[in-house]
Amino acid sequence: MMTEPRITLPHGTILGYPRIGRRRELKRAVEAYWTGTTDAETLEETAAGLRRATRERLAELGLGRDDSSIPESFSFYDQVHDAAVAVGVLPERFAGLRGADGAIGLDAYFTAARGAGEAAPLEMTKWFDTNYHYLVPEIGPETAFALSSDRFARQVAEAKADGFTVRPVIVGPVTLLALAKATDAAPSGFDPLDRLDDLLPVYAELLASLRVAGAEWVQLDEPALVSESLPASPAAVADAAARAYAVLGGAADRPAILVAAGYAQLSDEAWAALAAAPIEAIAVDLTRGAVPAPVEGLADKTLVGGAVDGRNVWRGDLEAAWTSLEALRALGAGAVTAGTSTSLQHVPHDVEDETTLEPRLATWLAFADQKVAQVATLARGLVHGRPAIADALAEASAALADRRGAPGVRDGLVRERASALGAEDFARGDYDERVAAQEIELALPVLPTTTIGSFPQTGDIRRARARHGRGELSADEYESFLRDEIAQVVTLQEDIGLDVLVHGEAERNDMVQYFAENLEGFAVTENGWVQSYGSRATRPSILWGDVARPGAITVAWSAFAQSLTDKPMKGMLTGPVTILAWSFVRDDQPLGETANQVALALRDEIADLEGAGIRVVQVDEPALRELLPLKRADQPAYLEWSVGSFRLATAGAAPATQVHTHLCYSEFDVVIDAIAALDADVTSIEAARSRGEVIGDIATSGFAAGIGPGVYDIHSPRVPSVDEITELLDRTVAELPLRRVWVNPDCGLKTRGYDETVASLKNLVAATQAVRASVPA
Question: Helices marked H in 65-139 — which ranges?
């Protein structure tokens, strides 16, 4: 028999925890299942073991075993996909994978995420302003909502059997619909949010199933309520929240409801709507938002104050966090709980796992486990008063002061160079004159073909890198290995028939970390893995001080590759915005200042590439859209410094040097004016997974520079056919000026295998040749 749920939260909690495992155990288990080297039972056992380890660790760090302070935030692939599958949202092209009872099992779940045969996977894009990618649900008037997975309930019951009362974490109904896209069958003007009333009964059924399984609380994540960058207006989203939580709050046999709205400040309308709703708790972000204004309806609610930043790795200012919680108390809520601003999925597991970080730097850091401890400290203060945590607050303040005064945090020469910059340092010259010079220099055919940069990072490459790191391969032996790998990649591209080649980046472990290892002001981690999407994880570098380039970074490898071919070889650089976005960046100065420091280092690198005979340079900025602030008032300033840093990096290039940039999963239409302002000669973008949706936006925008809408989705293992690529190219050349169009994959090929890569690139070239033959010369 069910007991009555507790309607108060403990004084400390977190909104989520890393789920890939301290050593990426989930990645290996999932990928083994995909390749057929392990079975579903083994995969489920591994996942259950990771969940158990997480619960035990969080209890060890101070969260309670039976008070719902531990969130159950596990996912095999993506939290948005989890919620969509739970309520029956599966594209029609995968309908045959449902069970006889309509259930959506693990194979259907993974197939929708990755695609199969001619069935394209779900589109993927960035989760608000983070580097995490979510799978975009497809919802139309015809979508039939029904409870289609019991996985959330099973995980609650699993925890209960182990002696834990956990709080399941699910993407809320408003955010699920607000982030969805309309199905192809939907009429023009259809908004998935229109289906809210149809979805809510299924969410109520889901909540009831959690209650039966033993959940006393459920956390419904609603970050859509903080964003001003969604198709729906903030007022419409707030109205949807008011309707949704009137229904769900009024449902019988449900757990207590915590609505979490992190990543920025709640809109005034949404804050008022949640305060008035019959729910038990609201979580607000106090690191990227201020303490909200007083409002009616808080007296019977718990406010979870996100005073510990869930998105960075700095130890932070606990004194300021405590002050924010005290201000939250002044709103007159029934109770206040200390928490994280967001899920901790955005940070690595544990600073204690790092053995090579400089000890002084390590004292400035807090990964997930240290942040849980910070929450526990603040919770102790809420119970026993500030004197009980005075020593901990003072210790955190001392670490912050030490960080501000440490050598390397401020470099006089770097700052002197940056302060001397003038308008001329950000301007490259007339675009048409550059095009004319580049046509003479490069002599490329119509519809030139290229790739984005990286080629598959094979097991041999990873093993050689590891052996070199352990001292088992000498520097000369490792360099010889890399030269052989580069030579093979160059020969392969010539055999396939690509027009502008790349060296494949075999020497690079990661497109940001590689530069971080060669620039002053950065540190790198051993085990600081953070999930990017699905089974993919990155190790963000830590940008702690002023940035300078001690010497050339990429020049030797690019020059060697160019010596092997008469075709143009692209020099490959990661842009300043992306280096910032995919690192944990210092928070003691404006981001624009840090971006310009990185840009100056890249400007010097481009000059050295030109000096070595490289005629094409690509400066990747896939994160340009990612960092766009969620609040419109903050966007102009961001776009000014982000575009400026790219222009600072590239403006020194000669007119005949062709500058490319690349953006993937970046919602091109949202920042199209900013992309044009980058003043790159050629821009390549994601387009294949969205089936060319962006092409119309490009055409109507008047974008005049070279453009390469991707025709091959590299985030799926499927090989696109010649006909599929030809169809995308035909659409492209029908809407865009022929002389401006390039042909390329959506993104780099690092994560793919060689068999599928070669087959896909051969199809890309064959399709290009067919389209070239069909258009006027």
Answer: 79-86, 106-114
Determine which helix (DSSP H) or strand (DSSP E) holds 305, and give its type and residue range: strand 302-308
| Cβ neighbours, 10 Å, residue 597 | 27
Q: How many whole angstroms separate alpha carbon 516 and alpha carbon 539?
A: 11
Known catalytic residue at 715: yes
Band of the pLDDT at 1, cuts 50, 70, 90? Answer: very low
Report the C-alpha gap between 491 and 445 in whole angstroms. 20
Whole-Å CA distances, 257 to 12, 72, 311, 572, 705: 16, 14, 24, 49, 50
Considering only CA atoms, which of 283, 188, 167, 179 is closest in space to residue 240? 179
Nearest to 627 by CA among 130, 124, 127: 130
Is residue 289 over pLDDT 70? yes
CA 147 to chain centre: 28
- DSSP category for residue 88: T
The pLDDT value recorded for residue 698 is 86
Mean of pLDDT values over 67-85: 98
Q: In angstroms, rounded to a whole number, what is the distance separating the alpha carbons of residues 42 and 325?
A: 44
- Per-residue tokens: 207: 């909540």
- pLDDT score, position 225: 98
At residue 666, the pLDDT reads: 53
Q: How far apart are CA 400 and CA 672, in angstroms?
A: 39
Q: How far apart are CA 102 and CA 403, in angstroms?
A: 56
Confidence of residue 66 (pLDDT cuts 50, 70, 90): very high
Q: Which long-range contacts (CB under 8 A, 24 or more apart) does 761-766 make?
A: 761/451, 761/496, 761/498, 761/712, 762/496, 763/712, 763/719, 763/720, 763/721, 763/722, 763/725, 764/449, 764/711, 764/712, 764/720, 764/725, 765/449, 765/496, 765/497, 765/498, 766/722
**For 162-195, what is each residue's pLDDT tens digit?**
999 999 999 999 999 999 999 999 999 999 999 9
Enumerate residues 6+ apart whose C-beta is below 8 A from 87.
145, 146, 147, 148, 176, 199, 202, 203, 206
Phi, psi for 167 (deg, rounded to 5): -110, 105
Burial class (CB in 10 A: 0-12, 13-18, 19+), 503: buried
pLDDT tens for 684-699 read 988 776 777 778 888 8
Q: Look up residue 769 and give its amino acid.
A: Q
Which position among 133, 503, 662, 715 bears the catalytic label?
715
